[in-house]
Amino acid sequence: MNYTLLIDGEAVTTERHLDVINPATAQPFAQAPAASAADLDRAVAAARRSFPAWRATPHAERREALVRAAQVLGEHAETLALLLTQENGRPLRFAKEEILGAAFWMTELAKIELPVDITEDSPTRRIEVHHEPLGVVCALVPWNFPILLASWKISHALLTGNTIVLKPSPFTPLTTLKLGALLRDVFPKGVLNILCGDDDLGPLMTAHPGFAKVTFTGSTATGRRIMASAASDLKRITLELGGNDPAIVLPDVDLDTVAQQLFFGAFVNSGQVCVAAKRIYIHDDIYEALRERLHALARTLKVGDGTDPDTVFGPVQNLPQFRRVQQLMDEARQRGLRLLQGGAVPDQGYFLPLTLVDNPPDDERVVTEEAFGPIVPLLRFNQVDDVVARANNSPYGLSSSVWSKDLGLARSIAQRLEAGTVQINQILQSTPATPLGGKKQSGFGAENGRDGLLEFTSTKAYFIPKS
To answer: Which of 111, 259, 377, 418 has the CA that lies 20 to 30 A from 52?
Structure first.
């Protein structure tokens, strides 16, 4: 299949192309177009031309367009899911869940209304604060959930009256390009543009003077570079960055239930989830019992090619990330840490065994760094004050979870955790109506909910006399 960029409502071919690797085979299976600086200029110009008319389009019509886009996603879920499995590695049934989840998110976000705040309504005047679109949005999407996160950025930008130029990761461009082809006739020309390129394209986009806002999901290191780039002309930015999310397990939990929930909360998508449990603190009284249950799950569940219906966990998505996680495992082993690993994994492709690290010191890299792969440290604790301090001893503050039958105690712990989201007796929960954002070096701003939509607007106050 030939993949094309989407610029000004047209399918655009390029002279250069990128190989796209199937992480289950470590071999290229398709090529994606590589946009040039001229393609970027053309896309931004198209988005700027279309902005006044799209901004003036009634909110109800913008909502209807998003709902139609969601319907298109649902109608093509099978085709898109197979393509996503090929380029991302995720098992097919979970890839389909992402496509349908993206459709759900677009539909639900479209229901949210922007407020008009009345700050004064006196006999002499009325003051209204409106929230108006910014202009053209630069959206940069990572490789771990390319369609779901693209749907968030498209929905936020377009519902609020902005236009958008979106770039998927060069590791997972194809499903997004296919989505662009499917949506060509859903939005007016120039409202939605999709470019693909190598690592040089992102910096060109974030520095481009035609953008009013940058929205990025990805690593903290890249987030810092985007901040610096956007500072030249004071672009608005939303950054959802890294996390090293703690889970705290108190001794009164039901071990079998919590083992299942936490295991999938840590290893879903082979650990490549920003809000996955990445450090699991277990009370001394239940440490061995919960550790053995988690290890049993690692030995039982299949790691393999996502097209195999028996596969539960796929490969690490790309070679650089594979090498980084492999290095963490090798270093932990060399330093004498005890690794509790799952069963054998395929020799071909970017596969690593599901790995638990048995109570490493808090200053080991496997504890202090976000692995973003199938390796998770288990850490003992005795006292609540101690574990809260250890959980907070991180430059990140994205998400966290607390596990206990004592909801009062769990909530008191949750209030002390430095994270944008804290979940009690659950994990990996999110809703379109609930803002997601981080503290510290996990970024700033929010996505989802009214707060997320307002990130794509500026306030404008109207002072209106009554006589």
So the answer is: 111
